[in-house]
Amino acid sequence: MELTIRRRNQEDINEFITWTYDGIYSFYDNNSQKEKIDGLKESVHLERAFSVVDENENLVGNCEFYDVEEDGKNILVLGVQMNPAMTGKGNGSAFVKAIIEQGRERLKFTHLELAVADFNERAIRVYEKEGFWKRDEFKNDIRGQTYRFIIMAKKWE
């Protein structure tokens, strides 16, 4: 499967909003909060928000690179989401690898971080396989529940 990141368009966002996940992964449902829906709709204008498509232009996922300030320095952070129809089927490494490689070509970063819910063991294994290590953790209240997130980081020379 050949994956490419490209600028998002309105049709992509309309599809993203419909994505729902099974079981514990329903945490990632895109229709779960008005703020999430609004954020997706507004992301069509962001230069570092991408859709991930296969060789037939089928929507495989989305990703966004954004800056977070921590201790007075900017950190480039990656957010990713795979099409629910493709999760749990061994596609994670190819998906993450394509995003990182093509993101580095576009943005020229040497350090990248991401946050993942601690229950998402599938994603954590994929990130570790792709060279990320656990740097820190934090808790966040979302929809009335407290979740623990793991911050993972990767550096290039």
CATH topology: the name is Aminopeptidase
- The shape, in one word, is globular
Beta-strand segment tally: 7
Head-to-tail CA distance between termini: 28 Å
Beta strand %: 35-45%
Strand order of the largest sheet: 1-2-3-4
The arrangement of helices and strands along the chain is EHHEEEHEHEE
The CATH superfamily turns out to be Gcn5-related N-acetyltransferase (GNAT)
- CATH-level-2 architecture: 3-Layer(aba) Sandwich
The computed structural class is: alpha+beta
Radius of gyration: 15 Å
What kind of sheet is the major sheet?
Answer: 4 strands, antiparallel
The low-confidence runs, each spanning 5 or more residues with pLDDT under 50, are: none
Mean of all residue-level pLDDT scores: 94
Helix content: 25-40%
Any idea how many domains?
Answer: 1
Number of helices: 4
Oligomer: single chain
- Give the CATH class: Alpha Beta
Task: Characterise the protein shown here.
It is a single chain. The chain has 157 residues and is an alpha+beta fold. It has 4 helices and 7 strands. The protein has a 4-stranded antiparallel beta sheet. The model has no long low-confidence stretch (mean pLDDT 94).
Write the layout of secondary structure elements.
Blueprint: E1 4-7, H1 10-16, H2 34-42, E2 49-53, E3 59-70, E4 73-82, H3 92-107, E5 111-117, H4 121-129, E6 133-142, E7 145-155
Antiparallel strand pairs: 1-2, 2-3, 3-4, 5-7, 6-7
